[in-house]
Write a structure and sequence with these properties.
- By secondary structure, the chain is α+β, with helices and mostly antiparallel strands.
- It has one domain (about 5-10, about 15-270).
- Helix content is about 65%, strand content about 10%.
- It contains 11 helices and 6 strands.
- Helix 3 (about 60-80) crosses helix 6, helix 3 (about 60-80) packs across helix 8 (about 170-210) and helix 6 packs across helix 9 (about 220-230).
- The chain is elongated.
- It starts with a helix and ends in a 10-residue tail after the last helix.
- The chain binds zinc ion.
- Zinc ion (ZN) binds near residues 135, 139 and 199.
Amino acid sequence: MIHPSAMRCVFLVLCTVVASCSTVSGSGRTQVNFYSAADDARIGQQAWTEVLSDPLVLKQGPKVERVQRIGNRIVAAARRLHPEIAENFQWEFAVLDDPDQINAFALPGGKFAVYTGMLNFTEGDDDMLAAVLGHEAAHVTSRHGTERLTQVTITRVGLDATNVFVLGDLDPGDRELVLQAIGAGTNVGVLLPFSRSHECEADVLGLMIAADAGYRPQAALRLWERMGARGSVGAPEFISTHPSYQTRIQLLDDAMAPAQRLYDSREALGDLPSRMGG
Ligand SMILES: [Zn+2]
């Protein structure tokens, strides 16, 4: 029999989940997020302060200028395509000097960091770097960071409730084993595919952002082809949690026509970036 307190707990969680549903800008997907856009900005700012204290942060020079130049156009496009969310954030960039890291990341609230490894990897091809930054901007406008925190919270509450109410009669050793089994299942079954769905969403929405910023959308295909050719070496975020290479190319192919239309409309306005190289 289920304990009445457990029922109450589950009911409260369900109410909170229903009250926390929102829609992801651009994809229309329903998202459960316990946090507000203002929370995204606050949480991101705290983490950003830590990022900026890293001695690897480059303060100036051509690499920083390149990221600023492309990043500013990406942010302008994110604001055009997702105004209701992007306007809540103060967007900022950093370059971290680590040539071995072919990687970039975004924090909630509009903060980006790009490693010099990624800048070298996309050297001479601004369209390709724009594909990376567009992908990161899409994580921000889709509020994936706080959605993920919400997911972890729900999972944890579920585990705690199971621990207290359902497993209460087991001896501590058995209980630990059961919890570990549930934890492993939750991790692989819920959290990991969830993360991959975020990556797919960021790929498609990021393609649109980069195109609307005036960068050629085909560069995204080039980026993932080149990444795929490297395997998992040196690209932890960009490969390990990401969908399979074939899934990714298929998704991008499907989204290429609308992305090209966004690019063409920028071109018609005469609003294309000046490109260094490529
Ligand atoms: Zn990503």
